[in-house]
Amino acid sequence: MDEPGTIARKSQTPTRFEEVKRVGSPPPFRDVLCAVDGSRGSEEAIRQGIALDGPGTRLSFVAVCEDRGVGLAAQADLGEHRARSALDEASALARKGGGHPSTSMLSGASVSDLLLAEAADHDLLVVGCHGGSWLGGVMLGSTATQIAHRAEGPVLVARRTADGDDFPQRVLLATDGSPGSWAAARTATCIAEARQSELRLVYVPGGMSPARYREVLKQLTVIEKATGYQPRVVDKPGQVAERITGSAQAAQSSLIVIGRRGVKGLRALGSVSERVVHRAPCSVLLVPPGMSRSSRPNG
Fold it and tell me: What CATH superfamily is the domain 163-298?
Protein backbone atom coordinates (compact mmCIF):
# COMPACT_ATOMS: atom_id res chain seq x y z
CA MET A 1 0.00 0.00 0.00
CA ASP A 2 1.33 3.42 -0.91
CA GLU A 3 1.81 5.96 1.86
CA PRO A 4 -0.40 9.07 2.02
CA GLY A 5 0.64 11.58 -0.61
CA THR A 6 1.97 8.94 -3.02
CA ILE A 7 -1.09 7.80 -4.95
CA ALA A 8 0.07 5.85 -7.96
CA ARG A 9 -1.04 7.49 -11.20
CA LYS A 10 -2.10 5.27 -14.04
CA SER A 11 -1.97 6.63 -17.57
CA GLN A 12 -5.59 5.76 -18.23
CA THR A 13 -6.95 9.23 -18.89
CA PRO A 14 -8.15 9.18 -22.52
CA THR A 15 -7.05 11.88 -24.92
CA ARG A 16 -10.67 12.60 -25.78
CA PHE A 17 -13.29 12.13 -23.10
CA GLU A 18 -15.92 11.37 -25.72
CA GLU A 19 -14.22 7.98 -26.02
CA VAL A 20 -15.79 6.93 -22.71
CA LYS A 21 -19.16 8.62 -23.23
CA ARG A 22 -21.92 6.87 -21.34
CA VAL A 23 -24.97 6.88 -23.58
CA GLY A 24 -28.10 7.73 -21.64
CA SER A 25 -26.31 8.76 -18.44
CA PRO A 26 -28.90 10.29 -16.08
CA PRO A 27 -28.62 13.98 -15.19
CA PRO A 28 -26.84 14.68 -11.88
CA PHE A 29 -29.91 16.36 -10.34
CA ARG A 30 -33.60 15.72 -10.85
CA ASP A 31 -34.94 19.06 -9.66
CA VAL A 32 -32.97 22.28 -10.24
CA LEU A 33 -33.98 25.72 -8.96
CA CYS A 34 -32.17 28.69 -10.49
CA ALA A 35 -32.36 32.21 -9.06
CA VAL A 36 -32.54 35.06 -11.61
CA ASP A 37 -32.40 38.83 -11.22
CA GLY A 38 -31.32 40.16 -14.60
CA SER A 39 -27.68 40.67 -13.57
CA ARG A 40 -24.55 39.29 -15.26
CA GLY A 41 -24.11 36.84 -12.41
CA SER A 42 -27.68 35.71 -12.92
CA GLU A 43 -27.03 35.11 -16.63
CA GLU A 44 -24.23 32.73 -15.72
CA ALA A 45 -26.43 30.94 -13.17
CA ILE A 46 -29.10 30.48 -15.85
CA ARG A 47 -26.62 29.06 -18.34
CA GLN A 48 -25.15 26.62 -15.87
CA GLY A 49 -28.54 25.60 -14.49
CA ILE A 50 -29.67 24.79 -18.02
CA ALA A 51 -26.45 22.84 -18.65
CA LEU A 52 -27.19 20.61 -15.65
CA ASP A 53 -30.72 20.06 -16.92
CA GLY A 54 -31.42 16.81 -18.73
CA PRO A 55 -34.06 14.19 -19.53
CA GLY A 56 -36.28 13.77 -16.50
CA THR A 57 -34.97 16.93 -14.78
CA ARG A 58 -37.39 19.57 -13.57
CA LEU A 59 -35.94 23.05 -14.09
CA SER A 60 -37.44 26.04 -12.33
CA PHE A 61 -36.54 29.73 -12.39
CA VAL A 62 -37.38 32.05 -9.51
CA ALA A 63 -37.03 35.81 -9.12
CA VAL A 64 -37.39 37.68 -5.83
CA CYS A 65 -38.66 41.24 -5.63
CA GLU A 66 -36.99 42.43 -2.44
CA ASP A 67 -39.19 44.95 -0.63
CA ARG A 68 -37.49 47.51 1.62
CA GLY A 69 -39.12 50.16 3.79
CA VAL A 70 -42.82 50.80 4.36
CA GLY A 71 -45.37 53.30 3.13
CA LEU A 72 -43.98 56.09 0.98
CA ALA A 73 -40.43 54.90 1.73
CA ALA A 74 -41.07 51.44 0.31
CA GLN A 75 -38.89 50.37 -2.61
CA ALA A 76 -37.89 47.19 -4.39
CA ASP A 77 -34.30 46.34 -5.37
CA LEU A 78 -35.73 44.15 -8.15
CA GLY A 79 -38.97 45.53 -9.52
CA GLU A 80 -41.78 43.32 -10.76
CA HIS A 81 -41.36 44.36 -14.39
CA ARG A 82 -37.62 43.61 -14.40
CA ALA A 83 -38.19 40.34 -12.53
CA ARG A 84 -40.77 39.19 -15.07
CA SER A 85 -38.48 40.17 -17.94
CA ALA A 86 -35.59 38.20 -16.39
CA LEU A 87 -37.81 35.15 -15.93
CA ASP A 88 -39.09 35.34 -19.51
CA GLU A 89 -35.55 35.57 -20.89
CA ALA A 90 -34.37 32.62 -18.79
CA SER A 91 -37.37 30.54 -19.80
CA ALA A 92 -36.88 31.33 -23.49
CA LEU A 93 -33.22 30.31 -23.30
CA ALA A 94 -34.10 27.01 -21.64
CA ARG A 95 -36.84 26.25 -24.18
CA LYS A 96 -34.40 26.98 -27.00
CA GLY A 97 -32.32 24.10 -25.65
CA GLY A 98 -35.32 21.79 -25.48
CA GLY A 99 -36.21 22.37 -21.84
CA HIS A 100 -39.62 22.98 -20.30
CA PRO A 101 -38.97 25.21 -17.29
CA SER A 102 -41.43 26.65 -14.82
CA THR A 103 -41.17 30.17 -13.40
CA SER A 104 -42.24 31.87 -10.20
CA MET A 105 -41.92 35.29 -8.63
CA LEU A 106 -41.61 35.93 -4.89
CA SER A 107 -41.72 39.13 -2.89
CA GLY A 108 -40.35 39.87 0.55
CA ALA A 109 -37.79 41.61 2.69
CA SER A 110 -35.01 39.00 2.46
CA VAL A 111 -33.91 37.46 -0.82
CA SER A 112 -31.76 34.80 0.86
CA ASP A 113 -34.53 33.74 3.27
CA LEU A 114 -37.05 33.36 0.46
CA LEU A 115 -34.64 31.48 -1.81
CA LEU A 116 -33.59 29.09 0.94
CA ALA A 117 -37.21 28.35 1.80
CA GLU A 118 -38.02 27.76 -1.87
CA ALA A 119 -34.93 25.56 -2.33
CA ALA A 120 -36.18 23.14 0.32
CA ASP A 121 -38.40 21.55 -2.34
CA HIS A 122 -35.61 21.16 -4.89
CA ASP A 123 -32.42 19.11 -5.23
CA LEU A 124 -30.11 21.96 -6.26
CA LEU A 125 -30.13 25.74 -5.89
CA VAL A 126 -28.11 27.74 -8.45
CA VAL A 127 -27.18 31.34 -7.67
CA GLY A 128 -24.98 33.83 -9.48
CA CYS A 129 -21.85 35.33 -7.97
CA HIS A 130 -21.53 39.11 -8.23
CA GLY A 131 -17.82 39.25 -7.41
CA GLY A 132 -16.07 40.82 -4.45
CA SER A 133 -13.80 39.37 -1.79
CA TRP A 134 -14.78 36.75 0.76
CA LEU A 135 -14.72 39.11 3.74
CA GLY A 136 -16.36 41.86 1.72
CA GLY A 137 -19.14 39.49 0.69
CA VAL A 138 -19.76 38.49 4.29
CA MET A 139 -19.80 42.06 5.56
CA LEU A 140 -22.03 43.31 2.75
CA GLY A 141 -24.40 40.39 3.16
CA SER A 142 -24.47 39.40 -0.51
CA THR A 143 -27.16 36.89 -1.42
CA ALA A 144 -24.69 34.27 -2.70
CA THR A 145 -22.60 34.54 0.47
CA GLN A 146 -25.59 34.16 2.76
CA ILE A 147 -26.92 31.19 0.83
CA ALA A 148 -23.54 29.44 0.73
CA HIS A 149 -23.28 29.99 4.48
CA ARG A 150 -26.78 28.87 5.44
CA ALA A 151 -28.07 26.39 2.86
CA GLU A 152 -28.97 22.89 3.99
CA GLY A 153 -28.91 21.35 0.51
CA PRO A 154 -26.56 21.46 -2.50
CA VAL A 155 -25.75 24.94 -3.83
CA LEU A 156 -24.02 25.90 -7.06
CA VAL A 157 -22.38 29.34 -6.90
CA ALA A 158 -22.00 30.18 -10.59
CA ARG A 159 -19.09 32.18 -11.97
CA ARG A 160 -18.33 32.99 -15.58
CA THR A 161 -16.49 30.22 -17.44
CA ALA A 162 -15.31 29.69 -21.00
CA ASP A 163 -17.34 26.51 -21.47
CA GLY A 164 -20.34 27.98 -23.23
CA ASP A 165 -23.16 25.47 -23.41
CA ASP A 166 -20.72 22.63 -22.62
CA PHE A 167 -20.42 23.51 -18.91
CA PRO A 168 -18.67 21.96 -17.11
CA GLN A 169 -15.88 20.69 -19.35
CA ARG A 170 -13.38 20.33 -16.51
CA VAL A 171 -14.48 19.29 -13.00
CA LEU A 172 -12.23 19.33 -9.93
CA LEU A 173 -13.29 17.17 -6.98
CA ALA A 174 -11.84 18.39 -3.67
CA THR A 175 -11.81 15.64 -1.05
CA ASP A 176 -10.27 14.90 2.34
CA GLY A 177 -11.39 11.28 2.60
CA SER A 178 -13.87 12.08 5.36
CA PRO A 179 -17.29 10.39 5.47
CA GLY A 180 -18.86 13.68 4.38
CA SER A 181 -16.69 13.85 1.26
CA TRP A 182 -18.41 10.84 -0.29
CA ALA A 183 -21.49 12.80 -1.30
CA ALA A 184 -19.27 15.28 -3.16
CA ALA A 185 -17.33 12.43 -4.81
CA ARG A 186 -20.51 10.75 -6.04
CA THR A 187 -21.93 14.04 -7.28
CA ALA A 188 -18.75 14.95 -9.18
CA THR A 189 -18.71 11.47 -10.73
CA CYS A 190 -22.35 11.78 -11.76
CA ILE A 191 -21.72 15.16 -13.39
CA ALA A 192 -18.68 13.79 -15.24
CA GLU A 193 -20.76 10.86 -16.52
CA ALA A 194 -23.68 12.99 -17.65
CA ARG A 195 -21.64 15.82 -19.20
CA GLN A 196 -18.60 13.79 -20.40
CA SER A 197 -16.42 16.12 -18.36
CA GLU A 198 -12.75 15.81 -17.55
CA LEU A 199 -12.57 14.96 -13.84
CA ARG A 200 -9.60 15.61 -11.58
CA LEU A 201 -9.22 14.97 -7.87
CA VAL A 202 -7.34 17.17 -5.42
CA TYR A 203 -6.49 16.42 -1.81
CA VAL A 204 -3.95 17.83 0.62
CA PRO A 205 -1.94 14.99 2.22
CA GLY A 206 -0.45 16.91 5.14
CA GLY A 207 -1.81 15.42 8.36
CA MET A 208 -4.11 12.99 6.54
CA SER A 209 -4.65 9.78 8.50
CA PRO A 210 -4.17 6.37 6.83
CA ALA A 211 -7.92 5.76 7.16
CA ARG A 212 -8.74 8.98 5.28
CA TYR A 213 -6.15 8.14 2.64
CA ARG A 214 -7.78 4.74 2.09
CA GLU A 215 -11.11 6.47 1.55
CA VAL A 216 -9.53 8.66 -1.13
CA LEU A 217 -8.29 5.50 -2.86
CA LYS A 218 -11.81 4.06 -2.69
CA GLN A 219 -13.21 7.22 -4.23
CA LEU A 220 -10.73 6.94 -7.08
CA THR A 221 -11.88 3.36 -7.67
CA VAL A 222 -15.54 4.41 -7.74
CA ILE A 223 -14.78 7.20 -10.22
CA GLU A 224 -12.77 4.92 -12.48
CA LYS A 225 -15.49 2.26 -12.48
CA ALA A 226 -18.18 4.82 -13.36
CA THR A 227 -16.31 6.84 -15.98
CA GLY A 228 -13.89 4.32 -17.46
CA TYR A 229 -10.73 6.24 -16.57
CA GLN A 230 -8.77 7.16 -13.48
CA PRO A 231 -8.82 10.91 -12.85
CA ARG A 232 -5.62 12.86 -12.57
CA VAL A 233 -4.66 13.48 -8.96
CA VAL A 234 -3.19 16.59 -7.34
CA ASP A 235 -1.78 15.83 -3.91
CA LYS A 236 0.67 18.56 -2.94
CA PRO A 237 0.83 19.63 0.73
CA GLY A 238 -0.02 23.15 1.79
CA GLN A 239 -2.88 25.32 3.00
CA VAL A 240 -6.00 23.41 1.99
CA ALA A 241 -8.23 26.13 0.48
CA GLU A 242 -5.29 27.69 -1.36
CA ARG A 243 -4.24 24.32 -2.80
CA ILE A 244 -7.78 23.64 -4.02
CA THR A 245 -8.26 27.02 -5.67
CA GLY A 246 -4.71 26.99 -7.04
CA SER A 247 -5.28 23.56 -8.57
CA ALA A 248 -8.48 24.80 -10.18
CA GLN A 249 -6.61 27.77 -11.62
CA ALA A 250 -3.79 25.62 -12.98
CA ALA A 251 -6.16 23.11 -14.57
CA GLN A 252 -8.51 25.81 -15.89
CA SER A 253 -11.32 24.02 -14.11
CA SER A 254 -14.90 25.01 -14.83
CA LEU A 255 -16.32 23.65 -11.59
CA ILE A 256 -15.04 22.70 -8.14
CA VAL A 257 -17.14 20.13 -6.30
CA ILE A 258 -16.53 20.14 -2.56
CA GLY A 259 -18.30 18.74 0.47
CA ARG A 260 -19.42 20.81 3.40
CA ARG A 261 -19.61 19.72 7.03
CA GLY A 262 -22.80 21.55 7.94
CA VAL A 263 -21.02 23.80 10.45
CA LYS A 264 -23.14 26.80 11.40
CA GLY A 265 -22.53 30.27 12.78
CA LEU A 266 -19.17 32.01 13.00
CA ARG A 267 -17.25 28.71 12.82
CA ALA A 268 -18.53 28.19 9.28
CA LEU A 269 -17.07 31.50 8.08
CA GLY A 270 -13.58 30.03 8.34
CA SER A 271 -14.41 26.61 6.90
CA VAL A 272 -12.48 25.29 3.91
CA SER A 273 -15.60 25.04 1.76
CA GLU A 274 -16.62 28.65 2.34
CA ARG A 275 -13.10 29.94 1.73
CA VAL A 276 -13.06 28.00 -1.53
CA VAL A 277 -16.42 29.47 -2.57
CA HIS A 278 -15.16 33.02 -2.24
CA ARG A 279 -11.63 32.53 -3.60
CA ALA A 280 -12.26 30.12 -6.47
CA PRO A 281 -11.57 31.19 -10.06
CA CYS A 282 -14.58 29.18 -11.26
CA SER A 283 -17.99 27.93 -10.19
CA VAL A 284 -18.25 25.98 -6.94
CA LEU A 285 -20.75 23.27 -6.06
CA LEU A 286 -21.21 22.79 -2.31
CA VAL A 287 -22.48 19.32 -1.42
CA PRO A 288 -23.69 18.49 2.11
CA PRO A 289 -23.00 15.04 3.63
CA GLY A 290 -26.64 14.01 3.10
CA MET A 291 -28.02 14.90 -0.31
CA SER A 292 -31.62 16.09 -0.69
CA ARG A 293 -34.38 13.54 -0.83
CA SER A 294 -34.43 12.67 -4.55
CA SER A 295 -31.07 13.61 -6.03
CA ARG A 296 -29.46 10.69 -7.82
CA PRO A 297 -26.00 10.72 -6.13
CA ASN A 298 -27.55 9.75 -2.78
CA GLY A 299 -29.67 7.04 -4.31
Answer: HUPs (3.40.50.620)
Contacts for 221 with CB less than 8 Å, ≥ 6 apart = none
User: What's the pLDDT at 18?
Assistant: 37
pLDDT band at 26 (very low <50, low <70, confident <90, very high): confident
Specify the pairing of strand 75-76 against strand 58-68.
antiparallel
In the 8-state DSSP scheme, what is residue 28? S
Round the average pLDDT of the chain to a whole number and report it.
81
The Cα–Cα gap between 153 and 286 comes to 8
* pTM recorded for the entire structure: 0.84
Distance, in Å, from the CA atom of 191 to the CA atom of 133, rounded to the nearest integer, reads 28
User: Helices 40-51 and 80-96: crossing angle, nearest 10°?
Assistant: 30
Q: Pick 31-158's CATH classification: 3.30.460.10, 3.60.40.10, 3.90.870.10, 3.40.50.620.
A: 3.40.50.620
> Could you tell me where the beta strands, DSSP code E, fall in 38-181?
58-68, 75-76, 102-108, 124-128, 155-158, 170-174
Is the distance from CB of 258 to CB of 287 less than 8 angstroms? yes
